[in-house]
Design brief:
Layout (H helix, E strand, L loop, with lengths): L3 H42 L1
Length: about 45
């Protein structure tokens, strides 16, 4: 017999993993965009 708490725990894990993945992806993309942006500013200053 499954307890409601067990079902909640099983549902929570993929959500947490998905959240971590999405934040990591967003962080990586923003880092790349920021890097390109800074490189363009540096290039225009030279």
């Amino acid at each position: 017999i499954l307890q409601p708490s067990d079902i909640i725990k099983k549902c929570e894990q993929p959500v947490i993993i998905g959240t971590l993945l999405s934040t990591t992806v967003v962080g990586a993309i923003s880092l790349v965009v920021y890097g390109v942006f800074m490189a363009k500013i540096a290039a225009s200053m030279l």
